Amino acid sequence: MIPSVRATENLHIVLWLLKDLCWLMEYRIAGLAMVLPTISVAIFIAWQSRKQRSDLFNALAVICWIAANSTWMISDFFFVGQGHGIAQGLFMAGLGILLFYYAVLSPLDRRRLTVR
What's the pTM? Predict the structure, then answer.
């Protein structure tokens, strides 16, 4: 049985908080170990949301956000901040996804509904 999107999102919040707590406490191995489950659950949420375009685009932006956040954490842990540029690119990709959805696709969807 596939869990509801809400239940998956609640699990995702726990994983994300644990990952960020590991970062804050400088538990490098635990923080690194939390990246894969956190991103995996975000991808699963996007998959669950694929039929509702607004939810899908927001979930894709969250994937970018977690990837950026994880890159930033790994950079701080192992590369003395050398990966911040990559993290910035991932954050910008997430913002770009949201901008595209809310500036282009959402108005088109609203227009289609009013024409019918």
Answer: 0.90
